From TrEMBL:
Similarity section: Belongs to the glycosyl hydrolase 32 family.
Record keywords: Glycosidase, Hydrolase
Keyword Membrane: no
GO biological process: sucrose catabolic process
Organism: Donghicola tyrosinivorans
Protein name: Fructan beta-fructosidase
GO cellular component assignments: cytoplasm
Glycosyl hydrolase family 32 N-terminal domain ranges (all copies): 10-298
């Protein structure tokens, strides 16, 4: 079960391939995580839905495979809901036409109350393909104001909205996407729609993953803040504005748990389609990100999503004896220090650099060297955000073997990257590069520093 690059506090399947988290739901006191899975190989083969449960979002217990390929196809991504009729899993059946083209329809499976048995509906599909090559990843939510279920499905470069009262007949409502946000060469995938409040006012946040042309190259996740009236999503920001949920290369296809009343909590697949099939692990391939609670906050750049790792997970990191492996929640007050670099795993390269300009603008540079045998892995992304010079800049790093998640600026900037270093448990080093006040750096972090 242990291997060099298997993280300890992130979910990974015991064996086989995993990509997107699917069917996430909190039910009967358990968090259920389903996921794109090939139990028989570490490649993206015929997709099944794997299944794992957790009481605390820290310890995950894998359960038997929930959905198997059938006559309609393999089981692509989807979601779960608890309806009055019971828990339902909505997924895409994916097959190939005789000409070798993708063919995708939406299906449903019924779960028993303990989510230990799953029965695909004999009347599948529930939503036929309207003639599109990309038509997948159904995310079903309950829309209180119109008392209907809403299903989001990707159409390639836009998201289609459907409505149903009985979860069987789905009526097309509208599509959102044209000219909004990032398009590039990428395919829009794995939509999610969350109702969130900011100072008492309701907003709807549409999360959309894009398979290519994310900030660091390859796949990534953008979001839109707006309104949803039960029929149509409208963006409050200018169409050309692009908001990224994560600036790293390894945060893809996040989905929220169906958990009415709870804070929106998402998990993503910690990889990138540009090299996911080549990462150097043995028994398994692919990991889930840490769970993150989302809220809306007013950052100096405007209304943004802030992300925070839930308390139980933070505590689990803090409680790790092996401090060389896990660094949790340090709060670096970089006041006075204009430039801070972070090197991981005892390596000399600076993996992260935060530079504070004189004008409240912070430049975050993330650099990841190529890894032997892993092409297209090297990563550099430079992002800028506004943070008042008068305000200490908070930085949090969750380092779990090679999987690193970083949050700063009140969680409005996040960056998730996989690493495959020679020694994945080596120390993290912070260096302040400017004269000025040295602030508290937790003792378990080794610190280097030089002036100027
Ligand atoms: C996103 C995705 C989905 C699809 C699934 C297939 O990573 O491409 O659009 O349903 O993976 O495994």
């Amino acid at each position: 079960m242990t291997e060099t690059y298997r993280p300890k506090l992130h979910f990974t399947p015991a064996k086989g391939w995993m990509n997107d988290p699917n069917g996430m739901i909190r039910h009967g006191g358990l968090w259920h995580l389903f996921f794109q899975h090939d139990p028989n190989s570490i490649h993206h083969g015929p997709m099944h839905w794997g299944h794992a449960v957790s009481r605390d979002l820290v310890h995950w217990q894998e359960r038997p495979v929930a959905l198997y390929p059938d006559a309609l196809g393999t089981c692509f991504s989807g979601s779960a809901i608890a309806a009055p009729q019971g828990v339902k899993l909505f997924y895409t059946a994916h097959s190939l036409t005789p000409e070798g083209r993708d063919f995708q329809v939406q299906c449903v499976a019924h779960a028993n109350d303990t989510l230990t048995q799953f029965q695909t509906d004999t009347r599948n599909p529930v939503l036929e393909n309207p003639g599109r090559e990309v038509f997948r990843d159904p995310k079903v939510i309950w829309h209180q104001d119109t008392a209907r279920w809403i299903m989001l499905v990707t159409e390639g470069q836009s998201i289609a909205f459907y409505a149903s009262e009985d979860l069987r007949r789905w009526e097309y409502l509208s599509s959102f996407g044209a000219c909004h946000g990032q398009h590039g060469k990428g395919v829009w995938e794995c939509p999610d729609l969350l109702e969130m409040r900011y100072q008492g006012k309701a907003f709807w946040v549409l999360i959309v993953s894009i398979s290519e042309d994310a900030p660091g190259g390859g796949s990534g996740t953008q979001y839109f803040i707006g309104a949803f009236d039960g029929t149509r999503f409208t963006n409050v920001n200018p169409a050309e504005a692009v908001l990224w949920l994560d600036m790293g290369r390894d945060f893809y296809a996040p989905q929220s748990f169906f958990d009415p009343g709870g804070p929106p909590t998402v998990m993503a697949w910690a990889s990138n389609w540009s090299y996911a099939r080549q990462t150097p692990t043995k028994a398994f391939r692919g990991a889930a990100s840490l769970p993150r609670e989302l809220s809306l906050t007013r950052s100096p750049d405007g209304l943004r999503i802030a992300q925070r790792v839930p308390e139980a997970v933070r505590n689990a990191f803090a409680n790790q004896r092996d401090r060389a492996t896990f660094h949790h929640g340090f709060h670096l007050e970089a006041e006075g220090a204009r430039d801070v670099t972070v090197s991981l795993f005892g390596e000399t390269v600076p993996h992260l650099r935060l530079t504070r300009g004189t004008d409240d603008v912070v430049t975050l540079t993330s650099r990841r060297p190529d890894h032997d045998g892993l092409t297209g892995f090297g990563h550099e992304v430079i992002t800028r955000f506004t943070w008042p010079l008068s305000r200490p800049l908070d930085i949090e790093l969750f380092v779990d073997r090679g999987l690193v998640e970083m949050f700063c600026a009140g969680g409005t900037v996040s960056l998730t990257n996989l690493h495959f270093p020679a020694v994945p448990e080596g120390p993290v080093t912070l260096t302040h590069h400017a004269s000025g006040t040295r602030r508290a750096v937790p003792r378990h972090l080794s610190e280097g520093g030089h002036n100027g």
